[in-house]
Amino acid sequence: MTRRIGYGGDYNPEQWPRDVWDEDYAAFATAGIDTVTVGVFAWAHLQPAEDRYDFSTLDAIVERAAAEGVRIVLATPSGAMPPWLAHAYPDACRVDFEGRRHVYGQRHNACPSSPDFRRLSVALAGKLAERYGDHPAIVAWHVGNEYGGTCWCPRCGEAFRDWLRERYGDLDRLNAAWNTAFWSHTFTDWAQIPPPNALSEHWRGPDHTAFQGITLDYRRFTSDALLGGFVAEKAAIRAHVPDTPVTTNMMGLYQPIDYHRWAPHLDFASWDNYPPEDASPSRTASRMALAHGLMRGLRDGAPFWVMEQTPSVTASRDVNPVKRPGVLRLWSWQSVAHGADAVLYFQLRQSRGACEKYHGAVLDHAGRTDTRVFREVVELGGEFARVGDALLGGRTPARVALLVDWDSWWAVEMSDGPNRNVRYLDVLTAYHRALWQANASVDVVPVTADLTRYDVVVAPLLHMVKGDLADRVTALVERGGTFVTTALSGRVDEEDNAFLADVPGPFAGLLGLRVEETDARQPHVVNPVALDGEVHEARHVFELIVPEAAPGGPAAEVRGTYGADFYAGTPAVTRAVRGAGSAWYVGTLLDDAGVASVVRSTLAEHDLLGPLADVPDVEVAERVTPDGVRHLFVLNHGEARTVRVPVDGTDLLSGHDLRAGDELALAPAAVHVIRRG
Amino acid sequence: MTRRIGYGGDYNPEQWPRDVWDEDYAAFATAGIDTVTVGVFAWAHLQPAEDRYDFSTLDAIVERAAAEGVRIVLATPSGAMPPWLAHAYPDACRVDFEGRRHVYGQRHNACPSSPDFRRLSVALAGKLAERYGDHPAIVAWHVGNEYGGTCWCPRCGEAFRDWLRERYGDLDRLNAAWNTAFWSHTFTDWAQIPPPNALSEHWRGPDHTAFQGITLDYRRFTSDALLGGFVAEKAAIRAHVPDTPVTTNMMGLYQPIDYHRWAPHLDFASWDNYPPEDASPSRTASRMALAHGLMRGLRDGAPFWVMEQTPSVTASRDVNPVKRPGVLRLWSWQSVAHGADAVLYFQLRQSRGACEKYHGAVLDHAGRTDTRVFREVVELGGEFARVGDALLGGRTPARVALLVDWDSWWAVEMSDGPNRNVRYLDVLTAYHRALWQANASVDVVPVTADLTRYDVVVAPLLHMVKGDLADRVTALVERGGTFVTTALSGRVDEEDNAFLADVPGPFAGLLGLRVEETDARQPHVVNPVALDGEVHEARHVFELIVPEAAPGGPAAEVRGTYGADFYAGTPAVTRAVRGAGSAWYVGTLLDDAGVASVVRSTLAEHDLLGPLADVPDVEVAERVTPDGVRHLFVLNHGEARTVRVPVDGTDLLSGHDLRAGDELALAPAAVHVIRRG
Amino acid sequence: MTRRIGYGGDYNPEQWPRDVWDEDYAAFATAGIDTVTVGVFAWAHLQPAEDRYDFSTLDAIVERAAAEGVRIVLATPSGAMPPWLAHAYPDACRVDFEGRRHVYGQRHNACPSSPDFRRLSVALAGKLAERYGDHPAIVAWHVGNEYGGTCWCPRCGEAFRDWLRERYGDLDRLNAAWNTAFWSHTFTDWAQIPPPNALSEHWRGPDHTAFQGITLDYRRFTSDALLGGFVAEKAAIRAHVPDTPVTTNMMGLYQPIDYHRWAPHLDFASWDNYPPEDASPSRTASRMALAHGLMRGLRDGAPFWVMEQTPSVTASRDVNPVKRPGVLRLWSWQSVAHGADAVLYFQLRQSRGACEKYHGAVLDHAGRTDTRVFREVVELGGEFARVGDALLGGRTPARVALLVDWDSWWAVEMSDGPNRNVRYLDVLTAYHRALWQANASVDVVPVTADLTRYDVVVAPLLHMVKGDLADRVTALVERGGTFVTTALSGRVDEEDNAFLADVPGPFAGLLGLRVEETDARQPHVVNPVALDGEVHEARHVFELIVPEAAPGGPAAEVRGTYGADFYAGTPAVTRAVRGAGSAWYVGTLLDDAGVASVVRSTLAEHDLLGPLADVPDVEVAERVTPDGVRHLFVLNHGEARTVRVPVDGTDLLSGHDLRAGDELALAPAAVHVIRRG
């Protein structure tokens, strides 16, 4: 098979008569589709009863694809169990947050602790691997689908207690970790520990818990429990398939699962790109870039796949707009810019019935190939074909790291006090957006990442500080790097207990300050912050900062001050010099311009502002192929405008030579992939 | 008994001492009240224990009414079961959407599949019929009360599976109907099928389901299951009462029950008129007119009863305003204009305690007869008495049909995609309002209605197309009629599976177009649509229309175009000529003026614009008595204004002769009933 | 021990190592803290297993406090049961409104009807009393914590039925009380009566019930059931402790518990002062004053304790602002002004983990004593020390009574009709705020209070009229007093059945009017009311008043009239002269200025307008010590302003002599305690 950017998508021919298959492949050929994902949700089809398998149709599907020269991603169908399974094993269904055992319905519906579900899903994965494992058309295995959700059943309760025994060893350590002396919760027998939900520690939903410790551990346990299913299926595949890579389709900025705990078990990362609607194109675009970065960061920067995106509309939203002309192409190339080696659709042919019947597809209900959507699919397929393998395997070297930490995400949002209106993603995306607009190449990495590679490390809302992170950050700064963190960082240890020290805990000395109080206000309350000659709006939390010298250096210098309330004139933003570097603290939540001011100052310290940093809505990203060739992507998410070509090179899409400094007219949704040289 | 417009209401003398009965009848005589509905909710009273009946008080109630010359509507009390029943048979209580078995409380609380509830309610209906069946004062039987709600208990699950076996015969057909191959839901045993609720296919409530097919069938099943109770009680009555008509009080535009499935079992239609509050008087008025029309349409245009309305306030709303002076009279005459032969109140005497103690009544807690409300009741009673039988049995001939279809209502609102903000009633009432303002006499009919009677057929949001409807519509148009339908019509078949054809499915050829894409936007997004020289606002959904010739004729002509977005300049509203007629398509949701423009164009094609079509808030309706006399009602729902008398005749209320073209000063809430001649 | 205003707070040294205790006491000495509440939530610590008690640490805590000269409030820990209890006795956990049995979690989690919880909590209270009962450092006992919540378990159902048997004697009386004939709810066996919740009579939450009677009785029962726990623990203490007063910490304006039913069982009142955030300082301040008054009124005006307040932030709110500088002092002195003899904090040392880790504390996580918060605590402690016993035991004589009635609160908010937007506290606080701003000294008392002490009695939303209240109000007026009541008063009897008489029932004659209709409108609808030359805004409910002479005197005179709607020009506010006094009726909900107009008119009739009644945001309150010395508190809740000194005297805080009429510059948060003389 030709090496090129994978192109295709989810395909369920078992739901259609054979003559439709012919239509499908004719259209695939027209569109340059070379990859199909088959088998997702086919469990009832492949195994109509516990004691009966039927691979005849899948055999035909695989053979047809192979015959057409189309590559196959073979999925295990465990994302949705069949009715017979739930009927035979009712406790394979989940118990929900409200404490109710569900009966059969929907998908992603199996209890991760059910031994029957585990046994049957793993057996089927093994059967598939045994039968198709050496088929040359199969280029990847895809386990389950969009893992997620939580079960609170008694069996999960038991598994949770086993997980806790493993983690804490004895109850004294657990009681200390959860601070159970508060409110008389000291557990004296493991059996006393319930799954934390609406019937035990919670009120007003999953983020409101009386004991953050138990809830935090239940999220960690849930992430691990779901991972257990993936790992077991993967092992069953590996028993027959030694080399073909195994993945699952993740969901980007998905709060319920800590993908960093999953990363070591994935042979490559893949994810489904359905950005939330947003008024502003750059918010949408930068959010996708952040998610691409997060996914890329799971495997240390290796290329990933976009396993799903819609060619046009979604169906599951309250309101589902069509993708505007050119947007499909623009976003697809953005994926490639950020490291995708394949860009697939959900779905190739539109479903007849049920809840995704109006979800967009390459081929609509009428099977037309003369639609705008199909034409755009064809055009993009043509470009991918023309580019061939020129970009494959490329990486995106970065000197800036953005730290993402699921534990902090969970902890800060389930905290009682200071302010429930602070949402982790809002702050993370605000800082990322500033980096993105500045054309900075950013690695989105876990707090355990090697920081010695970076000049700038940005860590918004790093509420929890674990392990030796503070030491590694200090080392970064000492050797000349820049560290930026924000309000509500450095508050708790790995068990969500407050540091018995000045805020922000392990960072206080490095930052040259302590936070004495944290004011919180309703969303409409604005405190103006003066910063480098401009005044920005701050909201939600206002930390009262006392600059204070520490062993590592002098007290922080004040860079921004509050303009209102009883703390008017006191520091809101500070910068401390430590060794050869500096450490910034932003003690409040600034508006976009305020965040940009801080971020650009830190980038400027290291000469990392990009060539089109001042052009709004235009994205610049770089990908370097294994042979060292650098490709600069220029992507216009906004209105038509003219910019200066940033580098000499050849546009891979138009074939035109471009000279740095020349004028470049960017139409809306314009894409340029400039091979430098 | 005198033949006249029935006047009276719900009456529960069993809750009061006998001396109050004397007061009641004195007041009834003053007010001209000649009809009482007795027995509603009297179960515990009539049958204090399973093995004990006590009809002594009801005997007295019936005899007293008869002695006073008051007609009786005798109700079976099955709208609320007594505590002893629920206590003896706990599974006679419902299981709710959340999967919880209820214990005793409220009303309309019985599981329709409970054999004990069925047995006991039917037995009591039989006892009543046996005892009172030949009483001459009884003019109608009234089974239960405001049927509604849903049960999801295991017994309903079993009954649902029986219903499905009846409908589909075998599981293969069921699996195809529900498209269960999607998400691995192929059922291999009937017992695997659960009632669809929050524990199975649903999330975010009853309109959010993973499988529309199962949910749609559960709604149909529920409608039939409740009907089963009505039918069984009616049969028990008919065993003793050969002729007296049997009805139940319906609720107009009530989404949970498909009244079209009930209609054949009703001897006459009756309903409870509690319009939702609305800022604009014409919205309220036209909505009531629509509901009257729907009820009238159940029995092919035969007169119906308003079984309940409040003389003043409701109690169950968050905010319960009093009816403004004259409104009771205005709305009561509007009922008659649209086909009511009786206008009754809930309630005649105000309840002492519990949740309706503040609901309005003819007689308040103090029993006063010198209140504004009582005076208005007396005045209206006097008018009804004066008019006598002049209007009884009248019908409202119409050349315009508005199609209402519960299946489409359910399907479009439970659809995932394109837009959850599209609500069936909003669109239905918008089109109806335009017809109403144009003084069009409209039949509100099911999609199975005989269309050969009509010149114009309007079908908003006809999402589902069943049976031979498309053929009948085509025939209508071919012979010179006009058909109007809208965005989101013609999408699915009877099983909610998408037509594998161009949108709008079976109507595409007739309409001379295909819809290639459907854009959906948030409610604040407006696309201006230019239509016949005016510009109107369109919202929510924007279909991208491709006019296309079809065997029946040329491509549609473009009547309106979008003014914004990438589809600016493309068709939004079209009209196709087919045979002697035309077919309109409105591919978006227009504002009121836009809808009026389309509707008036179609009415004008058939010279159906009414005499006061341009006078806002003034309603014109016609009722023709069996002797062929035409009565024109002129009802002013707005401010005082002067109009031209539309026809020669005599005002039945004032006795004045009116000449067409003369000035007629309409006070607010004015009512004129002009006997033409 | 020195007699002085108690100062200190909740203290849990069992959660900390001993060296922290040394730090604590050093800080307490600095701050003048002389009182600690210990033992709250220490159950698991004191009784680690059902058969094992461990008082060793508590012994040390008590001895240390005593050695430091610090007074002890010893709490029983029954506010939160330990895990072993819930595990051994699962039905000690509550069943919630949704009908779900909870498992272990949170606090205030025990079923009040659980015999095991009762037995174990009482036994532990007895053990504590036996061991520490004669310890001289213990100045008070504190049972449980913030009693509240409701259980709907089968055992509570049984206890409810016992309670009903006690109340009603037989089912006939119960059926009459609840008006069960409505909707066929006649109970024929006690066992048929369910606890009223989402599975029986309720929908849309606790305020929406089909039968107000059963729900009202369940609230009364719940209040009594929780009280049963308090009474039983108190009895166990009294078996060993003859004299030391016993209390529990209440919550001020807390709707779920009728504190008037609790009052006889408390040796003194205490409460936790966490005012809701509010935009306006006077709304917050007057609301606290109202709550202080309510608590004081429980024990006939005797001094009470503020058992908890935060020194800075709360944690449980969505948004938790810090207390602004001076506010801690201002609010603390306000407590004293209104009768507090002790002002305690929650908490002395900040918790490490779980849901209150960010709740403010005297000592923060770092244990700092150089913070703003600690400094303010020290300053206030110093003032309390300087004032010594000068104010102890003082009372606040009042000639104005504000009636508060939990039954009316419950009844009016669970009523179906006329308007769900009417909230009892909104109206109560509006009338109180007007009194407060006028510097009126107000007793906040139950409807059973002796009214002969008062000149003015204000009774907003007195929906339910019980016992001989109407007679006592009439006597008040006859002898020259003034009575003020509002819309929606006088509607129902003790069983929530409507009076079968003109509205407002027993008050109609006294008020010289009847209410014929009650209009209700959406919140945005304003009807202007002209009143004493001003026009005020009225909203929500508009009663149509007919002045009517009654045996006691002439018809009411009209003081205010509606300006809009069909009842424009009719009475909105009236005043009836009866005997030597007058009775006001405000038939709608007026804005603040309108309420103030009425309230000030009534105060002026008795020369009760205070010296700074026209100075916004400045509070004046008086406390008279047992020796007859009068202390006038002047508290500035607003911006800086200058006022006239109202009386001659000496400022206890500054030591300055003040002369009536001199200028007094009030800084923001200024406090003056003027000892008159």
How does this model look, in words?
Three copies of one chain form a homotrimer. Chain A has 677 residues and is α/β, with parallel strands linked by helices. The first copy, chain A, has 17 helices and 27 strands. In chain A, the strands form four sheets. In chain A, strands 10, 11, 12, 13, 14, 15, 16, 17, 18, 19 and 20 form an eleven-stranded mixed beta sheet that branches. A nine-stranded parallel beta sheet of chain A has the order 5-4-3-2-1-9-8-7-6, covered by helices on one side. In chain A, a hairpin with a 5-residue loop joins strand 21 (618-624) and strand 22 (630-636). The longest helix of chain A has 27 residues, at 212-238. Chains in contact: A-B, A-C, B-C.
Nutshell version of this structure?
Chains A, B, C: Its EC number is 3.2.1.23. The first copy, chain A, has 677 residues and is an alpha/beta fold. The longest helix of chain A is centred in the first third of the chain and has 27 residues, at 212-238.
Determine the number of helices of chain A (DSSP H or I, runs of at least 4 residues).
17
Output the structural class of chain A. Answer: alpha/beta
Assembly status: homotrimer
Shape of chain A: globular
Range of strand content of chain A:
15-25%
Q: Percentage of helical residues of chain A?
A: 25-40%
- Count of individual beta strands of chain A: 27
Domain Beta-galactosidase trimerisation (chains A, B, C): 398-608
Organism (chains A, B, C): Saccharothrix hoggarensis
Catalytic activity (chains A, B, C): Hydrolysis of terminal non-reducing beta-D-galactose residues in beta-D-galactosides
EC number (chains A, B, C): 3.2.1.23
